[in-house]
Amino acid sequence: MGKVYKLLVNERLRRRREEPLLLEMAERAGMADAPRKTGAPRPKPREAGLVLDLGCGTGFHSRLLARAGYPVLAIDASPSMLRTARRFKAAGSIVYKRGDLLAPLPVEQPASLTLLLGNTLSVFETPRDLRRALGHAAAATRSGGLVLCQVLNYERLRRLDTVATVRHGRVDGRETVLTKVLQVVEDGRVLLSLTACRRGKSGGWESFGEVSTLTPVQPRALQTAARRAGLRPEAVWGSHAKEPFDPAASVDYIALFRKP
Considering its fold, how many domains does the chain have in total? Predict the structure, then answer.
């Protein structure tokens, strides 16, 4: 699904919505390297250390931070997503690697800022696996560094029951329609269904799909797992604009942690 997944992302609007928070977090993480005297110039982004993008997908967040001058290590378990990410031209330094959050990560130097965004933490089916994943993320983050987590607000999704998104465009020159459906099922988990229909070379349509399940990560469970991983809570928001989290209305749950 790597090639067609990019249809879901309006990068211009998403960049406008998410980039300010990511750059603020990257700068804040870098400022923790050493106290800055009053009036002293801010450190250059590259002096702030590594940004680690875990579950990077097609590399959207990695490209934002690399464009701003931060060195990025982007890790994902999906070869398809990594192949797609590598096709994008990006300013700055990004290294892509394949890795599994349930195992020690292929990180040679600890990160100043570690990102766990999108559905990354919702693929783990048990609290134990969630703790393991956060533990490996914490181990790859330097002392004083920040870990930024984002999950869907599953309480809002449970009330809506179903959320569907449809996008129409061209992929590799072929007309393509991609449908993404989030459906709450009987056991309380969320079925994530991606279906792509594209026009074949003969003019007819062909389709393919991918189905996975997301485990609802509740705010309390995320906070507990993070503390057990040795992370200290710093802030909670309901959006990238740092709006207060509202269990009934916020689309996202965003939590910021620091590694002591």
Answer: 2
